[in-house]
Design goal:
Methanol Dehydrogenase, Chain A, 22 strands, mainly beta, four-stranded antiparallel sheet, 266 residues, 0% helix
Length: 266
């Protein structure tokens, strides 16, 4: 029920580490009535962006957009939908989203894409310097958003709204995004989405992805071709990692109550 942008919700904030002074901020979803709090990873990369060297902050947000900012000053460089979102018609010159009328939560319920779970969430994304692409897990579905007047009571949860499923099955998978254009270079569909199972890109040209059904999957980083999988026998709610022991590389992931680790044969 609060009016205005509600800073600094759904935002990234840069602080001076010596003084704690706020240097800049960027708000991904002003006056967020959909619970799209921007808790997703911020990827920091130094690279050429549209012909010029930049210190970038890249971020795939729950609200369905992939953002590129200049992390030295917070300048908005690009914002591109990476799913078929329905709430934003574009960005103004300052990078502020132009929300479509009628897509805020309402007493009668407004159907909007993405869901409260978001277009991506806690799943770890990954950046490959070899391809220059960002790899992430995504989900695409609609949700009905209700706003409800609620009396504040100290010590009690205060939301002022809720989400309700439309009954539509979510489309989920892994995709590669080119930060220069925001274009999806390829996508690999998964049977079930997850809020937590992420991806890992390696220097060997592979992308390892975890699926909710318990599969650890290897894909070709350039074209998304399926290469290998292993069924762990339990749900995977984590992201793969890579590490080395004695000069040998391992890929590991937690599944159920176990940690699985893999390496190439001698």
């Amino acid at each position: 029920m609060r009016e205005g942008d509600n800073l600094f919700t759904s935002s990234v904030v840069a602080l001076d580490p010596a003084t704690g002074t706020r240097r800049w901020h960027y708000q991904f979803t002003p006056h967020d009535t959909h619970d799209w709090d921007s808790n997703q990873d911020m990827i920091l990369v130094d690279r050429v962006f549209k012909g010029a060297p930049k210190k970038l902050l890249m971020h795939a947000d729950r609200n369905g957009h992939f953002y590129v900012l200049d992390r030295t000053n917070g300048t908005f460089l690009a914002g591109t939908p990476f799913i078929q979102q329905t709430w934003n018609t574009g960005f103004d010159a300052n990078g502020r989203p132009m929300a479509k009328p009628g897509t805020d939560a309402s007493p009668e319920g407004s159907v909007v894409v993405p869901t409260i779970g978001g277009a991506t969430n806690f799943q770890a994304p990954s950046y490959s310097p070899a391809t220059g692409w960002v790899y992430l897990a995504f989900s695409e579905a609609a949700q009905r958003y209700f706003s409800e007047r609620q009396t504040f009571e100290p010590g009690q949860q205060y939301q002022g709204g809720r989400g309700q499923s439309t009954g539509e099955r979510a489309s989920a998978g892994i995709k590669a995004i080119d930060p220069d254009t925001g274009n999806t270079m390829w996508e690999f569909r998964l049977n079930q989405g997850s809020l937590t199972a992420g991806v890992l890109a390696t220097a060997g040209g592979l992308v390892f992805a975890a699926s909710r059904e318990g599969h650890l999957i290897a894909l070709d980083a350039k074209n998304g071709t399926f290469l290998w999988r292993f069924q762990t026998g339990a749900a995977i709610e984590a992201s793969p990692i890579s590490y080395a022991v004695g000069g040998k590389q391992f890929i590991a992931v937690s599944s159920g109550n176990a940690v699985y680790s893999f390496a190439l044969p001698e």
